[in-house]
Amino acid sequence: MNKTASLSSARRQKKDDFYTQLPDIESELRHYKRHFRDKVVYCNCDDPRVSNFFEYFSKNFEHLGLKKLITTCYRNQQRDLFSRHDCEQAIYLEYFGDQDGNKVPDAHEIEVKHLKGDGDFRNAECIELLKEADIVVTNPPFSLFRPYVAQLMEYEKMFLIIGNMNAVTYKEIFPLIKADRLWFGPSISSGDREFGVPDHYPLTAASYRIDSNGKKYVRVKGVRWFTNLEHNKRHEDLILYREYSPEEYPKYDNYDAIEVSRTKDIPKNWGGAMGVPITFLDKYNPEQFEILGADYDVKQGLLSEILNPEWTGKTDRGYINGKRMYSRILIKHKRGG
Ligand SMILES: C[S@@+](CC[C@H](N)C(=O)[O-])C[C@H]1O[C@@H](n2cnc3c(N)ncnc32)[C@H](O)[C@@H]1O
Questions:
Q1: Is the pLDDT of residue 3 over 60?
Q2: pLDDT score of 206
Q3: Is the pLDDT at 80 greater than 80, yes or no?
Q4: Is residue 131 domain-resident?
Q5: pLDDT at 269
Q6: Is the residue at 1 inside a domain?
Q7: Residues 6+ apart with CB under 8 A from 87
Q8: Interior CA angle at 153 toward 119 and 180, to 5°?
Q9: Residue 47 has what DSSP assignment?
Q10: 265 CA to middle of ligand 1, Å?
Q11: In the prediction, which pLDDT does 104 show?
Q12: On the chain, which terminus has fewer CB atoms closer than 10 Å, C or N?
């Protein structure tokens, strides 16, 4: 492996090793209780010995009324806090709820089984488990976010997963948002979140912490829950206060749309197209707004109705007075404007 490749794989590996904290799982899951009754939940990127997803679902099994919990672990030969694998084979756990009435998931109630392969979510035996599942919940490796979501779509699964909000700009992900087949969960819409990291993780990040047991944590920006489970917040209207004026809302040089650089400033009385930041998706109510596309679509020649027909320059982004704007989503009011 050359130096650049090994560096980028190291970077990838680092982002793949962020371990979700229990309070973040609890804050999100409380919005979905109604979806889980009598369901098989599958956590397929989770070492059950350390995963807080396994912890959460096993301890809340009765509260949620689950039918079964399956958790597969990906083989990782590095011995560290988070992956204490002694054997080459990956394992998976099945839990059917409390059997002895003490309301605690005891070791003898959890069936530990061996997988033939390494537990990669794309392996045939993991796909068999996926088929059995109703809802998949986890924080998958960031570097595999695209194939991970593609697999959930292929098998038509309900899901609740953690990712980075920049993933919305992926050409595989944005069409799902536009088609209302994927949206953000309600509990994280700004700021950063703390994740556990393995012992060997280099703490060069600005915000890190080591707790009294020596466990390491970093704070990560841009984290979001991605889901296709219904929740109430996404049907709440964004309250708008601003009136349109040509001075405050300039038109792009190349798009037939106005620039709105902050979601809260969307004018209530503009009927045409508007370019908004991707953080708009934190407030997106599909009954209030229509997503027309993204600047990426214009570049691909997909949104010809938006493109200024006289424009001969670049189409990679919106431009205002020759200045290239940040990445934008193009939207429109649904109930007039
Ligand atoms: C971001 S970490 C999250 C771990 C755990 N889900 C959590 O939230 O605490 C991603 C996990 O996916 C595992 N993983 C990496 N590649 C995988 C693959 N191809 N199939 C399944 N799991 C994988 C890694 O070992 C790591 O534990």
A1: no
A2: 65
A3: no
A4: yes
A5: 95
A6: no
A7: none
A8: 140
A9: -
A10: 39
A11: 86
A12: N
Over range 275-287, report the average pLDDT. 97
Residue finishing a domain among 208, 234, 260? 234
Residue 316, domain extent: 238-333
Do 246 and 312 belong together in one domain? yes
In the listed set 234, 262, 285, which residue is the last one of a domain according to the structure?
234
Pocket residues for ligand 1 (CB within 6 Å)?
Answer: 16-20, 45-47, 51-53, 74, 76, 119-121, 138-141, 144
Q: Is the pLDDT of residue 276 over 90?
A: yes
Same domain for 221 and 303? no
Q: Do 59 and 85 reside in the same domain of the chain?
A: yes
| In a shared domain, residues 121 and 230 | yes
Numbers of helices and strands, H then E, in the chain: 9, 18
pLDDT tier at 162, thresholds 50, 70, 90: very high
242 and 190 in one domain? Answer: no
Note whether 150 and 181 are within 8 A (CB): no
**Distance of CA 45 from the midpoint of ligand 1 (Å):** 4
Rounded to an integer, what distance in angstroms lies between the CA atom of residue 106 and that of residue 108?
5
Nearest atom in ligand 1 to 47's CA = 27
Asked if the model's pLDDT at residue 81 lies above 80, the reply is: no
Atom of ligand 1 nearest to the CA of 162: 8
The residue whose CA has the least distance to atom 16 of ligand 1 is 141
- The pTM of this model reads 0.92
Q: 46 alpha carbon to ligand 1 midpoint, in Å?
A: 6
For ligand 1, the distance from its centroid to the CA atom of residue 138, given in whole angstroms, is: 8
Same domain, 245 and 141: no
Q: Please indicate, yes or no, if residue 214 is contained in any of the structural domains.
A: yes
Q: For residue 4, is pLDDT > 60?
A: no
Number of domains in the chain: 2
> Looking at the predicted structure, is the pLDDT value of residue 178 above 90?
yes
Q: Rounded to an integer, what distance in angstroms lies between the CA atom of residue 195 and that of residue 321? A: 42
Whether residue 243 is contained in a domain is answered as yes
Instruction: Provide the residue count of the chain.
Output: 337
Q: Check: CB of residue 140 under 8 Å from CB of residue 45.
A: yes
